Protein 1
Amino acid sequence: MRLAEEYVRLRSHWYEQGEQQAFHVTIAELAAALCCTTRNARLITARLVEAGWIVFVSGRGRGNTSVLTFCQSWTQVALDEAQERVQRGDVAAALAWIRQPHMPEQVETTFMSWLGEYFGYTTGHSPQAEQSETLRLPIYRPVVCLDPADAVFAFDTQLVDQLYSRLVEYRAEDRTLLPGLAHDWECNANGTQWSFYLYKHIRFHDDRLLTAEDVVASLQRLQTGQFAHSWLLDKVTAIHAIHPYTVVITLREPNYWLPLLLSHSGASIVPQDIGQHSQKEHALPIGTGAYRLIERTVGRCVLERFDRYYGTGALIDRIEILIVPEQEAAVALGNGHGMLTILTGEWDTTAFDHLPRQNVQTGVSMLILNRRQGILAKDEALRQALYYGVDREALVAAMGDTYTAPARGLILMNETLKANPMRWIAPDITLNESPQGIANTPPVDEAKLNTHHAACSHPSSEHSSTPCMEYDPQRAIQQLQQSAYAGNELQLYTFQRHEQAAYWLREAYRRIGICIAVHIVSWSDMMSEAILAQADIILFEAVIGGELHRQLEYMHSNRSLIRRMLPQELLTEVQPLTHQLLRSLPAVEGNRQGQLDREEQEVTSLSASTWLGSIHALLQGTYSAVFLAERSAGIVVPSFLRGVHMNERGWVDFSRLYVVATEEPAESNRMGNEDENPS
């Protein structure tokens, strides 16, 4: 509201003047306070008088001053404006507004209390006079992309899963493939042709019926190679609709993982005219998911229950997601009681230690080193200094909370965290398997495997306290002395949520003689070619919970931070390993591979554990990555909310949430009390 800004500007200029206290001013002084011309100052003053916020008596005659009286509460005007900004979906602007110079202290205190009350559960009535439930959630990262083919960040893919559907769905809890848009699927004997049979009468959010042509168009769009998830359809030669509800996918080589790959968020089905739709001004995504998107701004996304969803419908009518700046997360929540609060490491959560929470392991914090250009591309001794020069146990102790254990590679070793009642499901992974002897697959270079030292041969007992990644500061210094490093700063880029860890690492490396310059960039900027060209090191969390989807994505997606920093010679070694993996059967229920040529399958297959061991050998043995710590996400759940299940990415399926009322809630009132838990 522009008028509130002008009023607060005047109050800030004459902050010593109280309400109902007349004082003398000149029109020139008003213009200076409002940063405008005298003509505009008169116009603004007239609007403020009309609103009843000031009394202004113009001076009569040359040299006579005017008299100004403030009538409206400065605190109330500021609070109303801040609340209106939040309700418009701009929390960042509201926080900046209340922190202007000379703003009364009680404004921020009162606003923060209101903001904590604003988030959470409310009820109202729909236009059809039915009760409508709304859940407002604070999220501490931006929404970057909602195009399934290009969405790579964990929260983006979480929203994609709510808005779109896939041919096949994957349930990580019991590692089962379930019908999605397809009620059945099957492949031929050698795994080179898959048929998917679609449900009828499925509708997009704009009420159009979905047909096989939409599926074909969606997958052919991925095939163009321009998207982050085009890798999902590698070796696919043809996609055809042989019937309005039957799609046939033909491959150049056997791929028994195809149904599992098609459960990836990147394979979500979009309308066949998505190209035309996305070019429309203010166009919103259209899918077939349990929620449809009805509003998206920089600071807010609003999801509304899609009543014509073909599956089990969402149970909460409306989800409002407000983007809170990462640096404001703690103050924005206050005590957070009565909110569903997702804890992903952006802020100190000790205030929630007394509240019950769920935790799930989500990924590994790591440094990926630039092997394509710059000093680290060729200087292995310097890369070894970076590897040996960081004490991962000390890092975990210093960061705490979501840092759960020293990393052992691009894997998560513990099935569950002690505080987490849910199972974490993963392939049977062991890095002790040798990648040699795989039929038709070039073996990993023996010399590279031999450089693997203890890091590639971790203890088999999950209870072992031996850290997998070796910390050896003396060896780090020796390698540094043998390197070509001349003391110049290495450029480390990361996101704001990793800022504390970045500066901890800078200090740790300084102690062994390596200078690090830390750069904090936005989520979208990190993906730019300019940033990647400047970066010697990128610090990020590789989200790898669940099935092997994510590790495959990091090695094959053209938007992966890992792949984009690796040299071509390493990528060339990855490709044949993956092709052999796809010839094997994934250890999931419901793959429906039909009658296989078992002899062919046994000869050419590569287990998931062996593939992962080989990838680990490539990254670790060439010192292309420095794995730091296993990470977790947590969630604090209010007592009235049910259906809360954290997925492998550390987020919650909104469509499964529902409210249990212990008493009749008042309209538009949070169901919360001092004993309830936030999120």
Protein 2
Amino acid sequence: MNRTCRFLSREAADTKTNGGATARLVGRSDTARSILRHTSRTLSRHLSGVALLALVACSSGGTSEPGGLAGSDTTASAPNVGLLLPLTGANGVLGNEMLAAAKLALSKQTGTLPLPKLDVHDTAGAGGATEAMQAAITSRDGIVLGPLTNVDTASIGPMAVRAGIPVIAFTSDLAQARPGVWVFGITPQQQVSRLVDAAKIEGRHHFAAFLPDTPLGHAMGDALVRACREASLADPQVVYHVGTPEAIRSGLATLSAYDTRVATASGQSTGPAQDLPDDLEAALSSASKASGTADAQSPGDPKASPPAQTAAATSSDASPPTLSAPPFDALLLADTGLALKNVLDALKANQVRTSDVRLMGPGLWGAFAGKLGSVAGAWYAAPDPAARTLFVQQFSIQNHRVPKPLADLSYDAGSLANSVYSATGGKGYPVDLLTQPQGFSGVDGAFTLTGNGQTLRKLGIFEIQPGGGSRILPAPKSAVPVPGAS
């Protein structure tokens, strides 16, 4: 047993015997009063004061770490697992799906310990998430899994921290992370950090982003800036668009330096004119005069008409010149649906080729990767589905349906709680075990909780295939750092 577990065991034992300590103290006080019945009233008050101090010391238990989590009486004496989910209302179907997954995880027997009790609270009921969290506090739950959304997490986070109850929230909004409240959803920051790491290993160093002007777009843009800085890369160019075809075309033309590349391909100088040698200037002047004489001839002159017609035909039949690569070699996108189609059309029109640029996108692309054959070679970061095979089988047997992807989160959170419950002998959920450096295995891959409320995940890199669909790339020989928190 490690030092943490021994400490928790001693604290639990102290807590368990508080009643006995009280009885002994009271008994000693009674004996003292019996023996010293005839002593002064002042001495009697002094002894009573000593007894009171002893009672306070016994009942206070261990001191808690920042956030009131590790070593507190709440976590040491309350093995119950609270679950905050919307079980009714608009998200009721999803909430019950996640409830079923959590029950499955917590039904796994660990040794001879009795299973932890699951204390379920509906965040869509009267009073919402705040009332549900208060019920969990009143029930002295030792850990809370959920709630589902960032709004609910924001409302219950301070309550949980004050009560010393750790929270594993299912939101992916990193703004909700704090010591004692972990953001457990798969975040844009995790995805972008993994993509930048992989692209850097591939040899790409100039990043850019063309993103929708939406919360997801800005989250991915901010994540790209941070990931590039953490990887010691130059700050990326980030452009946001409002989603109209015109905005997409003009925005990509600017980002890809289209006009400059066209001018370069046409042999036009984009800088200030330079002085020419005298002989070259004279030759160009003679050619210019000859051209002017030809233009001045009568339109009916048979010697003049054919060259003019040839030039017109050449001009009309000319195809756009092949342009050089844009000023970036990795481009992050985040659009889906029709907006993504417009972005891909604009990339083609601006000659941003996948042979020059690694396209990268959100994990959402995995849901329709079969339709993305036109951007073969593009990447997105997501959990390896092979890791959830056993979970899907067990869930399907028990519930007669395939689990939704978000059910993975509640299953992994339940497995985490069960693991820590077992490690403490059923005594609680201390923060030092929740944040153990070796992390935990999950159906969405290995993960580690950090002290500041973030979750580190080892996501896979998926590459879009020419005929559509995607395949996971093998891990690089050099270790890829897990997306981390500062």
Protein 3
Amino acid sequence: MPEPQAASFSSQRWYWAAPYAAVVLFAVAMLSLVWLLQQRELELERDALARDMQWAEQTMRRQMLGTEEFLGQLARDLSSEMLDHDGFQLRANQHIANHPELANIVWVGSDGIVRWSAPFDTTDRLPGEASSSEQAGMLERVRASLRVEYGAAHRSPRGGAVLEVYVPVVRSGAFRGAIVGVYSIERMARYLVPAWFADKYRLALHDAEGELLAAGTLLPALDERLSFDLALDPPGNGLSVRATAFRSGSGVPRLLPAVLILGLSVLVLWSLWTLRSHVQRRVQVEKERDRLFNLSLDMLCVVGLDGRFCRCNPAFARILGHDPEALPGRSLIDFVHADDVGATLEQLRRLADGEPVKFENRCRCADDSYKWLVWSINPVPEERLVYAVAHDITGRKATEEALRAESAFRKAMEDSVVTGLRAIDLNGRIIYANSAFCRMIGFDEDELIGIGPPFPYWPEESRAVCERNLGLTLSGQAPAAGFEMRIRRKNGERFDARFYLSPLIDSSARQTGWMASITDITEPKRVRAALEAAHERFEAVLDGLDAAVFVADARTDEILFANRAFKRIHGFDAVGRTVNGVAVPQPERGDYRVDPRSLGTSELPRELFDGELQHPLSGRWYHVREQATRWVDGRLVRMGIATDITDRKQTAEVARQQEDRLQRTARLITMGEMASTLAHELNQPLAAIANYCAGCVTRMQGGAWRPEDVLAAMQKASFQAERAGKIIRRVREFVKKSEPRRSAVRLAEVLDDALGFAEIDARRVGIHIVADVEPGLPDVFADRIMIEQVLLNLIRNGLDAMADALPERRVLVLRMRSFGPDAVEVAVIDRGHGISEEGRRRLFTPFYTTKTEGMGMGLNICRSIVEFHDGRLLVDANPEGGTIFTFTLPTETASERTARSA
């Protein structure tokens, strides 16, 4: 079809679109009107449902609040002892009869046991029955809050959903239990709303997770669009009420207007579409042809056999910058680069013979620059025309040029390096050798490429070694440090070289062979030989020293060097063995200032140890100094120098013995000062004996005693008497010994003994002691009696600090846990009045005390005992109020390691 006619059809498409738009707008307007009317009706129904639901919810809340008041009155009468069992049954049964939503009413004691239950014929919560775990938790919650609490909705043993309300019973400030009202949720949905509400809506109760607990009716015909949710408070806890309207009729009348409107609209649109379709098919082919020609990213053109353009697409303007409307009539040769004219004319001659061609040339742009184009041209001889497609390849040409330049640059780099490079395939054939490698061995690249083993640069005398190294390379087992080989040049000269191997990976991440870098090490080996000669001179100097000197690898502990004095002490075969193997006096790994294995090259040299050690076999003493440094081969080593100081140590031991005699004399002089200490230490066991004996006398006077109880108390009193004797013996031993007896002690057992004394005073003042002991604590190396005295003294201080505290704050926490790998931490945490900053600074001063009757020696003695055990006693403020006393003790294994290192 001619272009004017196609343009005419294109201009008429708006006339065809107008009827479609009118029909669609009419249908949308009618459907919107129907929808708005229906939505208006639905909103009115929802407003009515919301008002009814709020009225019903207020009714339910009012009745539940009335039940709360009734239960509260029962609790008040019960706490004032104005209610007996018969009165409870009468009033509870009457209330249940007037409120059918209640299943039963019970009185639960503070111990969780049901005391009274109504009505008489109930099968739930019978008198004497224990509460479940959930009910016991609610009882504890009421005990803590002392106010009305609602439990979470749950299923009763008979399967029905119930809701419990707890009203506390408090007498003289003490919690005596709770009055529990049990709602049947199914009855709540049935009886808490009037009959007219149940006729219009289905009432359902849901828990916090949205699960249905009960419904007023199970009729399925519901209108889910008309539903309303309200949270029920009380009881809260996520309980909600949902009202859903019953379906009043079928939805056919509601949908009928919309169906008619849509049906008529579709019929009209179908008739218009049928009328238009045959017209569109007539112009479709022409539109596709023009669209392909105009939208192509490549240059499309029609050229005559004389080489002149007939028609060009818009891509000419985008690629070359020429106006496609101005190109018809101009010759293609006019735009070709002068260097490419001859080749282009040859291709045009082939086109004249009817042969399709494809070629590349440069064409001039509108700004006189040139771009590379690849032409694909097919001739149509009968029309005397050719149809050509040209693609811009200027970017590809630039990339190819850059790749050639990059390749030339890399080739220049390979030829300029002094390190030889050689590549072999997976079968061992040489596939590449750079010029440095060729110069190194004297062979040309052509003489090496493609040959397999044995290679011409392998010496005859080292061929077995070369073949073994090649086998390791091909199997992927070549060492990371490479290997050293003897190489033969083309002129027969030998030299030493080191080969470093790495996999040869291509662009697809596939291994195609092995790459080797070769370095001439002839000169480095000569330098190494000179260093070895210097090392021999160094050894001669060290062998003349009286001190024992050794050098050991920091990682493997292998002895690399030892002078004559070291070998004379530890054996002349010491080099090559480990330091531990020859029993060299050396510190434990933890005694080093820094672990030598973790040092870097920039941190060398570094002093590791400077101290005195005893030989484990001979018993002689040595002054040992160790330093981390670098060995001649680059390894990190420890250099140790040990000087015999046995004579000096023996002289110091004689002086120490004389000093011990002076100290024993000083302890005899200070015996008079131990009176306060003895009184303070004996006060605790004697007080415990008095408490146990007084308790036995009280029970025997009252007549309500059992022999086993009195026996247990007397056994504990006997143990305290024995403990008092041990304290006296310990004070006496202070005079004749420098330290008490220490052994492996389980802190949990010490805590049990201390609690046996402390819980007597704790019960008297109403304080609860909580023991928080980490399982699996290691044993500590300590004196059991002294640590028990420290612990008991800190516990009694905490009890005294909380004597005036509120009842809910009277909790003393004893915490024992690991403190790193070598210690155990013990903390006594009270919530009393606390200690001021000034008091904490003076707390461990002798005779300073915060108590009215204190002596001011307890904490000072405790700190001395803890420091004697290599621990620390600290005091901090408790963030929750009060004080935290903390002390640490070393474990048995840590003490043994310390003893060995000493």
